[in-house]
Amino acid sequence: xxxxxxxxxxxxxxxxxxxxxxxxxxxxxxxxxxxxFLRHEFLAALHDTRCAxxxxxxxxxxxxxTDERTGRLAAAAPVYLKGxxxxxxxxxxxxxxxxxxxxxDYYPKLLCAVPFTPVQGTRLIAEDEIARRHLAATLVAFxxxxxxxxxxxxxxxxxxxxxxxxxxxxQREGVQFHWLNDGYRxxxxxxxxxxxxxxxxxxxxxxxxxxAGVTLRRVRGEDIRDEDxxxxxxCYRQTYREHYSSPYLNLDFxxxxxxxxxENLLLVIAEYEGKPIASSLVVYQRDENGxxxxxxxxxxALEHVPCLHFETAYYQPLEFCxxxxxxxxxxxxxxxHKMARGFMPTVTRSTHWLAHPAFSDAVARFLESExxxxxxxxxxxxxxxxxxxxxxxxP
Length: 395
Description:
By secondary structure, the protein is α+β, with helices and mostly antiparallel strands.
């Protein structure tokens, strides 16, 4: 092997602005699963609108490898120094509590992830497998040399996870619910594949929304007006208010991605008597060879209408997937109720390294037990397949 291929210069960057956006996006486009959330525009928007900054407990420490021969970006990873575990969706609060009870500091920790975004995709953005392996080794070395308790890589691809576990990181599994497009001609054809009870319930839910006098419209990113963003932001904040929580994102963030990546955005707006009352925002990515993925992200309502959440956040996006021939609809974190609407369980991954040997051993034992539970849970879920054909969508 040519040793020259390993001649990389490492960078630890305190802001997305410190890396060239065109180079970052060009590298991302070469990946197997280039989600829109890894686009430079998305990460920069999080930083520039102060949603993911040191003041919010998200201090960027982006790791880059530059090829010394060409001067081009060869690999990169979105890494943050975290002072808490909010906005991650892979929960390690119990680990942090165990550290505290033993008089140890769990924070700061290093996190490789997209803030506030439980979406699986590449985390080790690299020009080839050599660069990917070198980047993985650089991340682990960075954690070992830094004054941190741990390193966590959330929602990586299987290839990324393999590169990281090959260096000794522990793998953790989770479950999400994804809908797969079987080439349906329309929503009714999709419904025809479900069990009668599930089909009947969905039709009843949609009918309740219609009979309540609510109408729906879909607005593509380039057509979203500022008044639409202001309304959506109110809905988004209302969702957090109802859960007695603080929203992670702000209006400036939504305006920013609306301006910089409109081709990836779809806003669904529900109206009653001409007045908007609810909305959802989904993000999608088209594949070069056709198909693509839609990601359910944010939802909120200012008025309560029975079943409006399902119509706005699921059924309208599902119709959009069918019309646009998108292959997958990833429903986001949690939610067994999604199975009744045709979403099937899918395993997600994260990888973890802990500096403290005793805690690392304890977490390894916990993850072994948890993984067995996840596999049993997946088997149980698949036993309740919502499709008429029991083998349909069984991964």
